Amino acid sequence: MRVHFVHVPWVSHSDKLQTIRGAVFIEEQGVPKDLEWDGQDAASNHFLAINEAGIPIGCARLLPTGQIGRMAVLEPHRGEGIGFKLLELAIAKAEELGYTRVFLHAQSHAEAFYRRAGFLRAGTEFEEAGIPHINMELTLPIPFDGEVQPTKLHPLPEPPTPESSAFARFQGEAACREAMLDYLEKPMRYVLIYSQYLDHGLFDRPSIVNRLSTFVRNFKNARVQILIHDSKLIVDRGHTLVELSRRLDSKIAIRKVPSEHSNTVESFVVWDDAGYVCLPDYRDYLAFSDVYDPVAAKRFIARFRGIWGASSMDPELRVLKI
After folding, report:
1. Angle of the 294-310 helix axis to the 82-96 helix axis, nearest 10
2. pLDDT tens digits, 52-81
3. Which of 118, 124, 295, 300 is most enclosed, with most CB atoms within 10 A?
4. Residue 300's closest CA among 147, 178, 219, 194?
């Protein structure tokens, strides 16, 4: 049965949201009513999962503080990925609003669930409504300061003037790979990769994978986000970077772009709102880059973030065996 996920206002959907939360938290888990109805719903963003019969079966909310909570799915519909999709919607809304961080109080038994979405434990276990909880946080990409049209491709940045010694061009697979290896020493916060088929010549190499592994392990809040077009070639051939993402799923996330972007031929890597490497056509190993060009980097970041918000997890990658 298909499930629809929608962003809804509290004023018009409070009865549906209250029905789900009442059944899950108050009746099933014994949460006191005065704790559940905390007076913060009117100022929050809410999300509903609705089945084909029009029956609400799950919900979540995002507080103005950046806290995600009230994640609830009715018992007959658990294990169907509904909760994870609601969580993704809340994160995407936070990014749209320009938040740089979201957090939540996860019931301790659900820690692994939230780790799959990139959340990390912050602090020790505590009790809330008599239930063990842990605080978990997720650092979001730096917001782009400007208007973003997610489905409209931004033009390629103009090459810097000749006076800029940071600008460089590379031609050939080996040259592009060596440049990528050099640049991946520089990130300290995040790396965004847009690669149609996660190019094996560039990314399925021990040197590249080891460098990304070192990056995410050495920096507490480091994150790598990867957008691909299709996983078939990746699954058929195997990929060491994908295997790394499976082992470090709280740090490295891979999503599949929506169909309207399937004809995009440009690929790029951008980091820390500072530098980038761009291949105007992923089929040709001809790249240009700049280790520090914040204006151009922010264009790539804005484009990536717009597509990321509409992208989806690819189940083929989760079960990949290498």
Report:
1. 150
2. 889 999 999 999 889 999 999 999 998 888
3. 300
4. 194
Q: Which amino acid is at 184?
A: L
Contact 214, 248 (CB under 8 A): no
Residues 6 or more apart from 46 whose CB is under 8 A from it?
Answer: 7, 8, 9, 10, 13, 17, 59, 60, 61, 62
Q: Token digits for 281?
A: 């056509």
Sequence-distant (≥ 6) Cβ neighbours of residue 6 within 8 angstroms = 47, 48, 50
CA distances from 100 to 94, 144, 235 (A): 8, 11, 33
Query: Does the pTM of the predicted model rise above 0.85?
Result: no
CB-CB contact of 227 with 306 (8 Å) = no
**Alpha-carbon gap, residue 304 to 153, rounded angstroms:** 10
Q: Supply the Cα-derived Rg of the chain in whole angstroms.
A: 21
Q: Which domains does the chain have, with CATH numbers?
A: 3-139 (3.40.630.30), 167-318 (3.30.870.10)
Q: Give the CA diameter of the chain.
A: 68
| Burial zone of 29 (CB within 10 Å; 0-12 exposed, 13-18 middle, 19+ buried) | middle
